[in-house]
Amino acid sequence: MEGSSSGKHFMLVHGLGHGAWCWYKLVPMLRAAGHRVTALDMAASGAHPARMDEVPSFEDYSRPLLDAVAAAPAGERLVLVGHSLGGLNIALAMERFPRKVAAAVFLAACMPCVGRHMGVTTEEIMRRIKPDFFMDMKRMVLNTSQGPRPALVFGPKLLAAKLYDRSSAEDQTLATMLVRPGCQFLDDPTMKDEAMLTDANYGSVNKVYVVAMADASNSEEMQRWMVDLSPGTEAEEIAGADHMAMCSKPRELCGVLLRIADKYE
């Protein structure tokens, strides 16, 4: 899913269980503003052909993004946008290719920090969530080449109440049809390595955290806690946005992204 060769190049990364499809409102808006857009499916997500039990590691899960960033032409500066768990995917790409990234946008996302392991924000979010949050979410265990791995599938009630509660009934329905099993990879070596993210690479990239102010799954307090972990991170906010801000407030999100693209060269 690409567009104009002029303007900035946005690379959009979905969250847990989702796919490139969740950006369907935002992509044409960014293209209409003259920017190139690539909405990606991580491995075993969206229309990607693999199954989650066939994905050995978080790096393999992130491979579509890492390959896309690596293939970007010399001199093309990217704006990476990671939603929810997708914040960890873009963090890995920032560490590997910092000179290619003009800015990184964390949309109601897990945003790690230098000096702590990548999974710290995911672990903290899970620690703060109350047991009744999970509603009809299904838990499963995948048999992988690395051994058993826990996976999650969002149920229709959870999607409607916690993720898409301010989005349209059509968006809720689309999600119930398209979500796939997702993994948080909390036991993955990449997630446990406190030296993974460095000041010289990840820390050198311009970061903007976009707070979804009406997010029922990731509180404003939690989102701002992650901003505070990384001094120098710019914060934007979108009033009335649920967790799926690209569905509930696409025009407002587009406006934020266009300002970011103009600000960072």
TrEMBL record:
Xref: SUPFAM superfamilies: alpha/beta-Hydrolases
Taxonomic superkingdom: Eukaryota
Domain AB hydrolase-1: 12-252
GO biological process, one term: salicylic acid metabolic process
GO MF annotation list: methyl indole-3-acetate esterase activity; methyl jasmonate esterase activity; methyl salicylate esterase activity
Pfam families according to UniProt: Abhydrolase_6
Name under which the protein is recorded: AB hydrolase-1 domain-containing protein
Organism: Aegilops tauschii subsp. strangulata (Goatgrass)
